Amino acid sequence: MIHHSIGSTGEVDAQLYQKTSKLIRADAAELWDGYAAPAEIDRVLKECVRRKAPVYIFMPLDLHAHRVPASLLERKIDLSLPVDEAALDAAMAAISKALLEAKKPVIFLDMLAHHAEDETRAFVDAVKLPFLAAHGAKAIVDEDHDRFVGLYNGSVSSPGVADFIEGSDCVVAVGWWPADTNGGLGRKVEEGKRVDVMDEFVVVKGKRFENVYMAQVLEALVKELGQAKVPTVEMPVLPEHDLKVDKTDDKITQYIDTPTSSTLGKGTC
User: Fold this and answer.
1) 75-82 long-range Cβ contacts below 8 angstroms, 24+ apart
2) Which of 48, 74, 100 is a domain's end point?
3) What average pLDDT does range 173-194 have in this prediction?
4) Which residue has the higher pLDDT, 15 or 131?
5) Rounded to an integer, what is the distance from CA 173 to the centroid of its chain?
6) What confidence tens digit (pLDDT) does each residue in 91-102 have?
7) pTM (2 decimals)?
8) pLDDT at 250
9) Alpha carbons 125 and 128: distance in angstroms, whole number
10) Which of 1, 123, 180, 269 has the most CB atoms lying inside 10 A of its own CB?
11) What are φ and ψ of residue 23, in 5° steps?
12) 3-state DSSP call for residue 132?
């Protein structure tokens, strides 16, 4: 057996890690030909950046010293996204219709908004709608922004936050990701009220549009809706958070107000 053996047989399978990476990777390359290797590396790195996901490159030990022209470094990797004009036009028409017909549209930033942070910030600034964020998207847009409402974490959100977003008739959710650790289990925003702008597709009130990318869609929305009459939505007046402080306690404690009782309990951390 050698140190790369797996199991107790001593057999070395050079493909083992390539096989296991399939579950999480965006793309992969096996570099058996030194002359073809630079193009393969560029191809896989492009997918890594474009899709914001891991990639796997396998290189045999005796290939690493293969010399290739330094001039290849002068050619930049094309990181532009493929454009399907028909798909983008169809998605934009559906999104615009949903937004412009709504009476109380809001924006919700979720985990996958990290795939297009600059475009997300530009979108929020352009449409001037109230916006909320999930914990997984906290501070993609500065929380001092004058249109920031708060963090939406389902029923345990700060007072008034859940009522505001759940009462909206159109929620533009950038990067919707309802994981349990991201407030997903307590959310009550139905699909029929949502416009989900995802990394590689869009869902408008249940209808899915493929071959469109988050950055493309947000850029198009800035151009189109920045000049359109997006409904004016007033910022909510949220109630004060009733935070109890026990200055005489010598322990770090946490007050718990359960929905079934008006009695405040105090648990030691």
Assistant:
1) 77/42, 77/45, 77/46, 77/49, 78/46, 79/46, 79/49, 79/50, 81/50, 81/213, 81/215, 81/216, 82/211
2) 74
3) 93
4) 131
5) 10
6) 999 999 999 999
7) 0.81
8) 79
9) 6
10) 123
11) -70, -25
12) strand
